[in-house]
Amino acid sequence: MRHTEAPDFDPITGFIHGLTPEGIPAAVLQMARRCLMDTLAVWAGGRTSKPARIAYDHAAKRYPGDLPMPFDGRRVNPVGYAFAGACSTDALDGHDGHQLCKGHASAALVPMLLAELGLNPDCTLDEMLTHLIVGEEIAIRAGLSLHDTAADYHSSGAWNAMGAAAMGARMRGLNAEKTRHALGIAEYYAPRAPMMRCIDHPSMVKDSTSWGALTGASALDLAEDGFTGAPASICVEAPQYWQDLGQHWRILETNFKAYPVCRWAHPPIEATLGLMRARRIAVDDIASVTVSTFAAATRLATMRPADGDQAQYSLPLCLAVAILEGTILPAHILPEAFDIPEVWGLVDRITLTEDPELTAIFPAQRLAEVTIDTHDGRCLTSGPTDARGNFDAPLGDDELLAKCAAYVAEVLPTESAATLAALVRGPHPTPAELIAALNRRT
């Protein structure tokens, strides 16, 4: 830990190095605790997935070092650590996000944060959270700026790399010039992956968050060694997103997922489950389900997913599982769980259609309307419905804690799960206690 830089005249580098725990509102610190706990839980839940197993093996083979990887124990360097952690988190689509960015910051930032804390987590929890908040504020603004200045819909790695580099520059105490170079390198090398390609063809590449974390970590190393980067254009070309750093806290706009599937599938799930409860519709009553939603969500159209990656981007499958189970848990989207006749019978009765009015208000609002036709002739409609977990309708701490417990159950021992929960419930653990908890094995 080498955070020694004084505030700089540049508002971005000044914020990165000048923010202190005392300057952060209590609500922002609490949101950071929620982001940290939720991301670690999703990371743990994704660790048993095939993409995470490959990424961990890759890191152990290609990036050897001194840091034990959480939920594993093999030792890698910080770049490999950040890469494997972000890939594991991205493998289970339950991570937090930001509505207007259409993507995820914490999934790259939390692995990068732990990689930089490394073997010497000699700081308080509030100091650790301050590092994370810096990364969140830079990453989210980078995402907003990119979407405002580039026509294509890019994956999260295209912008969360800058947050990772900013957070690392703060933690290493880089001077203002090297910090600007780290941001410039991260922005230039970040994977501007075409996100809708992964929607249309789901695979392990997901949101390219693993490469966002790797790029941020590598940019940090390069800048520290004197490598220079061109000015980060998304800071220069969209100054409106950077002028309120430290005043308007973008992390408070974070949303949390109730289910480990694409966020765009959540509104139809909520609409369907709410309609079934309100009108007392049993599974056997359902003749057909029609989902009217925004155009991007209708492309979550894989009807027969072959693996967990495809399942998380299959709206018909996600909805069918939710109808049968009343929820979706990580185990529900594994091939051995969803390959049953009842699921496919429901999948074949689900139709997706675009509602132009809902498309027009996306991504600021992500709504769906569901119509259920029953075998006895009823036609029941939900009305436009949003997802739970948005910043203006947040998941409560109890629900977030229950999610954490479910996701870590097969990966962490009971005492480690309690340490994660204490981030939100209290008494708050120290960073050293938290890292030790992640390294315990069941």
Which helices and strands, and how do they pair?
Layout lengths: L10 H8 L7 H21 L3 H13 L1 E5 L6 E2 L1 H14 L5 E2 L7 H12 L7 H25 L7 H16 L3 H14 L5 H6 L8 H16 L8 H4 L17 E2 L10 H13 L7 E8 L1 H4 L9 H5 L2 H11 L9 H4 L2 H7 L2 E5 L1 H5 L7 E7 L4 E3 L15 H12 L5 H12 L5 H8 L4
Parallel strand pairs: 5-6
Antiparallel strand pairs: 1-2, 3-4, 5-7, 7-8
Helix pairs in contact: 2-4, 2-6, 2-19, 2-20, 3-4, 4-5, 4-10, 5-6, 5-7, 5-10, 6-7, 7-8, 7-10, 8-10, 12-15, 15-17, 19-20, 20-21
Describe the structure.
- With 442 residues, this protein is α+β, with helices and mostly antiparallel strands.
- It folds into two domains: 277 residues, 2-methylcitrate dehydratase PrpD (Orthogonal Bundle), CATH 1.10.4100; 124 residues, 60s Ribosomal Protein L30, Chain: A (2-Layer Sandwich), CATH 3.30.1330.120.
- The protein is 52% helix and 8% strand.
- Pfam families: MmgE_PrpD_C, MmgE_PrpD_N.
- InterPro entries: MmgE/PrpD_sf, MmgE/PrpD_sf_1, MmgE/PrpD_sf_2, MmgE_PrpD, MmgE_PrpD_C, MmgE_PrpD_N.
